[in-house]
Amino acid sequence: MKKYQAGSIKNVCFVSHGGVGKTSLLEAVSFTSKSTSRLGKVAAGNSTFDSRADEKNHKMTISTHLGFCEWNDTKINILDTPGFLDFLGEAKAALRVVESTVILVDAVSGIQVGTELVSKYVEESGVPKLYYVNGCDKENADFVKVVQALKDNYGSGIAPIVVPIGSGTGFKGIVDLLKKEAWEYTRDGSGVGTKTTIPSSLEKDVATLRQALMETIAETDEALMNSYFEHGELTDEQIVKGLASGVKAGVLSPVIAGSSLYNMGSDKFLDALIELCPSADSRTEITVLEDSGEKSIKCTESSPAFSFVFKTISEEHLGEINLVRMFSGKIVSGQDVANVGRNSTERVGNMYFLKGKERVDTSELTFGDIGGLLKLKDTHTNDTLADKTIKYRFPPTILPEPLVKIAIAPKNKGDEDKVAVGLTKLNEEDTGFTYRYHADIHQSVLSAMGDMHLEVILEDLKNRFRVEVERTQTKISYRETITKPVRYVEYTHKKQSGGAGQYARVFIDLDPLPRGGGYEFLDKIVGGVIDQSLRPSVDKGVHSKLEEGILAGYPIVDVRVSLVDGKTHPVDSKDIAFQIAGREVFKKAFEMSSPILLEPVVDLEVTVPEEYTGDIMGDLSSRRGKIGGMTPSGKMQTISAKVPEVEVATYSSALRSLTQGRGFYTKKFSHYEPVPGELARKIIDTHAAVAQAVHE
């Protein structure tokens, strides 16, 4: 295939609510541009891009896919991201390596909860955007209504550049407002339109909308505004250039329309991507990390090679492929490159341009391009591959905190390693989940973005790695602490029966520390009442109780132990004696210090349509939540609250029920605070009952 410079490369990300047709649009433009030889269908299970077994099974995109096509001497790299809410974190990584994004909106449903969430991600990324109103062939499709909703939610920069010809079963083409051209399509899936005259029924609307488009564009540039006032209109060239400048600046968002299902309008959509989206060379610098902090570097073809691994995929019978974006320079097959963060070197072997499951061999990746590197020995998602002279790295993608979690254990004894290996490999492809053993609750916890996310992970574990797990509810990671100081608490350990004797006498002070203070041990012994070598043994003894807890079996935090006095025996005092004395004196002092339980509290941000805010705030209050405030965004409200973690264990389903599926939330750990007395008593009693049963 032809080699492209960065100025002729467009990197685009497709995002949307689930089921709006991102993958179908990618199939359509790939077929229209002859990048693929057939028009794949997600519903039929023969998509070139949704080719994984789990994607075919669930009939939806689960992992980001890379495709490319060539159109009018331009290479367009397209990242197709999942739309189902549980997998939207994939879009955050994809948005970091593109210069523009296309937000698909359904022509019937309009703005949906996923639209709001991906729009937030796009806004945070600063990537210019276009809107594609998909499904104009559907019954009850209403392009005008959708455009108005976009303006109401996202402001006056929304700029429709087409007018659909018909709708529903009568949809047959579009009028291009930029060039005042009408194009009609058949439903055979060819994707190439036939130029025709503008229907007389649309002439008035076309004239009005084109005039409005010119005004919108003119308002973004003083020179264009002067020209518009002087001549009463803009030329076609001024419209296209002004619109492209507005898109690049992030002040204009063109709206296009079509039908990806029937491949109607794909050719004009490709034209719009080329005319309006910034090229790869528009990104002239990036922020990188080095030991001393952040700095900016130039992105040029002549700079040393610098690339970022934003995604890892696994191909059966082939191995892992690292997807990389070249930010400067180039990488060629056979070259040694540095994996900067891991202080290692990789020899680059096979390199590909990807079209979903199809691969096109290449011998080099150049500035601005995106491709795949096969079977690197120790390179992973979020790594930086660069020239061996480079010591800085690209910042890793920070994904949202997982929202749901379960405890898992292998169904068959001895399968622990198989579970760990399987989840580690799956985590290479999907960094949106976490898996680790929590010593404080004695559970292996799998945390994901939602119930569907969990199901897909466990399905893949079973189908790909032949291992199954039992799932149980996770325990809450409570903590124990004290509320008042005690002084000069004494404990004496003596053992004289049989064999060598043991003797240790210790005195400690115990003080509470501020929340988050952890644990401190102070040696305040004056003189030699306890040998210097034996004092750390007291600390060891205290540590053993810190880990296992005293009230209810949870770790003890935010305490200071001061060793203030003691006594030794010339023969019987030894390490084990002072460890036992340290453990027991701490237990005694702890019980005297008005101990309490602490529970984890999370920062919750719930985004819902404004009509649901009252119900949501009432529900959060019933969960012992403390409302922090509300932030409006269009017709949505984001409610901030601090809520005990135990109260949000099943919040996903509750929020879905309260908002008819139109709300979403994020959460992250905030702090620990005291458990209310009655609830604390139940937790302590339950622990005591379990301990008694085990003892019996």
Secondary structure elements and pairings:
Layout (H helix, E strand, L loop, with lengths): L8 E8 L5 H11 L20 H6 L6 E7 L2 E7 L8 H7 L4 E7 L6 H13 L3 E6 L8 H12 L3 E3 L1 E4 L7 E4 L4 E4 L9 E3 L6 H16 L3 H10 L4 H14 L3 E6 L7 H11 L8 E6 L2 E6 L7 E10 L3 E10 L1 E3 L3 E4 L4 E4 L3 E5 L2 E5 L1 E3 L3 E5 L9 E3 L17 E7 L5 H14 L4 E5 L4 E6 L2 H15 L3 E4 L6 E3 L4 E10 L6 E11 L6 E5 L11 H14 L10 E9 L7 H18 L3 E14 L3 H10 L3 E8 L2 E9 L6 H9 L4 E11 L2 H19 L1
Parallel strand pairs: 1-3, 1-4, 4-5, 5-11, 6-11, 31-32
Antiparallel strand pairs: 2-3, 7-8, 8-9, 9-10, 12-13, 14-15, 14-23, 15-22, 16-21, 17-18, 17-23, 19-20, 19-22, 24-26, 24-27, 25-26, 28-33, 29-30, 30-32, 33-35, 33-36, 34-35
Helix pairs in contact: 1-9, 6-7, 6-8, 10-11, 12-13
Strand order of the largest sheet: 18-17-23-14-15-22-19-20
Name the overall outline: elongated
Contiguous low-pLDDT stretches (5 residues minimum) are none
Distance between the termini: 75 Å
CATH superfamily of the largest domain: P-loop containing nucleotide triphosphate hydrolases
* Total count of helical runs of at least 4 residues: 16
Overall number of strands: 36
CATH level 1 name of the largest domain: Alpha Beta
- By CATH, the topology of the largest domain is Rossmann fold
- State the assembly state of the protein chains: single chain
Average residue pLDDT: 93
Helix content: 25-40%
Please identify the structural class as seen in this structure.
alpha+beta
